[in-house]
Amino acid sequence: MPELPEVEVVRAGIERWVSGRTVAAVEVLHPRAVRRHLAGPDDFAARLAGQRLGVARRRGKYLWLPVEPAAGGVPERAVLAHLGMSGQLLVQPQGSPDEKHLRVRVRFADAAATELRFVDQRTFGGLSLHETVADDPDGLPDVIAHIARDPVDPAFDDDAFHAALRRRRTTIKRALLDQSLISGVGNIYADEALWRTRLHYDRPTATLTGPRTAELLTHIREVLNEALAAGGTSFDSLYVNVNGESGYFDRSLDAYGREDEPCRRCGTPIRRRPWMNRSSYFCPRCQRPPRATA
DNA sequence: AAAATCTCCTGTCAGC
DNA sequence: TGCTGACAGGAGATTT
């Protein structure tokens, strides 16, 4: 459920409360939470101890903390975090009761009486330590080099995105969820952006014109920025910022989760369709299905 | 080789 | 009351 706006809210909280601090000790309470760290939980904890963490960065739904190099220069390692479906990064007072699904605890070597906690009910998310892409000033972890830039990144290439859509033999919502084409968009904001653009989720990407792709990108950016301003979207208490608070963008959703409720443009009841082991919400009048799909 | 499908995981809720 | 199954769904792994 955390998509770009939710992860960005968390990133900002981590930057404020964690960046610049030095790790004292790491406690892994569930090995699955560090499974992407192939050398194992003990190695993860040992390599992190004593390291000073730099400014928190984000690409799409991934966020990371560069490990500050001892001798200056660009970072060579970074702590990568992905929230998966239900992951939370919380900054909590030391000694406050452990959360039920606490997976990793990071203590710091300073006087601030807070610690970083990774809490994850479904353990789809996790933490890991990686080498960075050579000479990357932000310390991009090598394992996410294949993740495309996200649409709020100034370096996102709109024309290249359109060319990629034309080249692909797939449908638009699949493409929006493909993080190697555009990152940060998940099921909720894909449905919202498609509704705003009046595009059906099964529209073949090869049929999109330049102006139509441009419109879609505009709406994607708008919905992401509006959600960010609202502190993110939350349907339950699973998505929270580092202080445990939920955003309120769910009140502003036009399509997602609104089955049988009237379309805010035309009044037609919003429909839900099973789609790729999840759901697609759309207005059957504003978002007409493509003519020639099988 | 690109595209589609499978799979991991735990909790909630509807229905009986 | 308690069981069952559907659903939530990101993204790497596997299959087509």
Task: Give the tags.
about 290 residues; N-terminal domain of MutM-like DNA repair proteins; Helicase, Ruva Protein, domain 3; four-stranded antiparallel beta sheet; 6 helices; 10 strands; DNA-binding; EC 4.2.99.18; multifunctional enzyme; 8-oxo-7,8-dihydroguanine DNA N-glycosylase activity
Summarize the SSE layout with pairings:
Layout: H1 4-17, E1 23-28, H2 41-48, E2 57-59, E3 62-67, E4 77-82, E5 87-93, E6 102-108, E7 114-120, E8 126-131, H3 158-167, H4 172-177, H5 187-197, H6 210-229, E9 271-275, E10 278-282
Antiparallel strand pairs: 1-6, 2-3, 3-4, 4-8, 5-7, 6-7, 9-10
Helix pairs in contact: 1-6, 3-6, 5-6
The chain binds a DNA duplex (16 and 16 nucleotides) through loops.
Task: Please give a quick description of this structure.
By secondary structure, the chain is of the alpha+beta class.
Proportion in β-strands: 15-25%
Sheet with most strands: 4 strands, antiparallel
Identify the CATH homologous superfamily of the largest domain: MutM-like, N-terminal
**Could you say which overall geometry the principal axes of the C-alpha atoms support?**
globular
Main sheet strand line-up: 1-6-7-5
Distance between the termini: 30 Å
Low-confidence stretches: none
Class inferred from helices and paired strands: alpha+beta
Helix/strand order: HEHEEEEEEEHHHHEE
Q: In total, how many domains does the architecture comprise?
A: 2
Strand segment tally: 10
CATH architecture label name of the largest domain = Alpha-Beta Barrel
**Average predicted local confidence, pLDDT:** 91
Subunit structure: Monomer.
InterPro entries: DNA_glyclase_Znf_dom_DNA_BS, FPG_cat, FPG_Glyclase, FPG_N, H2TH_FPG, Ribosomal_uS13-like_H2TH, Znf_DNA_glyclase/AP_lyase
Binding site for DNA: 101, 122, 168
Active site: 2-3, 61, 278
